[in-house]
Amino acid sequence: MLSMDIAGKVAVVTGAAVGIGRAIAIRLGTAGASVVVADIDVAGGEETCALIGPTARFVRVDMRDDDAVRDLMSRRPQILVNNAGGGAVLRPCFPDASVERWTASLDVNLRAPMLATQLAIPGMQTTGGGAVVNVGSTAGVGFGPHVSPEYSAAKAALIRFTTTLHDLDGVRVNCVVPDWVATPRGIRERDALPPAERGPALVPLDAVTDAVVRFVEDESLAGRVLLLDREAEPCLLN
Fold first, then answer.
1. Which of 58, 94, 102, 151 is catalytic?
2. Is residue 4 part of a domain?
3. pLDDT above 70 covers what percent of the chain?
4. What is the pTM of this model?
5. What's the domain range around 231?
């Protein structure tokens, strides 16, 4: 197995102020990366940096702002985790939402990671290669209905975007596709449901961070997608 050493690398993690993004940023920082915590949430982002230590720095970024994304990628990361996203629980959703509302969901969940990846590739290639890990959602897998069609469509497209980019001259792109994750918010929301509606245990945060590290380190997994389902074992989809 060809491997990439995380220690000493610059890692940008978007949406890292809370939840999954925070856990990924902390994990990469623990492994020795210099972590750029990117988020629109200043207080949360600075708290994430404090949890990591002096190797982390916060950058306020609205991932829907192209100029802000360009500035973020000018830091020339060797590791990029496209985690920023969301909007699945906001109402109204398509088709009742305005064009501006559902377009905003596509922008943050699909367009932003595509742009960030595009801008990161040249710098990674000139510094010996790099790794991009996209964070998807099981909302983008399958054929059933979903309360937010625009969110599901964006996450489905993010998976397919990943699988098309298996060979970029030293830059690897992967995607982790988690079900409902045991973040503090996720736990609160599940516990608020009646017991009969809670379903299986949430996906552990460690399962997500382990998957990100695995994809960053293992160069043989370029273009692969890992499904983390609440009701099944982790599964590579391709």
1. 151
2. no
3. 98
4. 0.95
5. 10-236
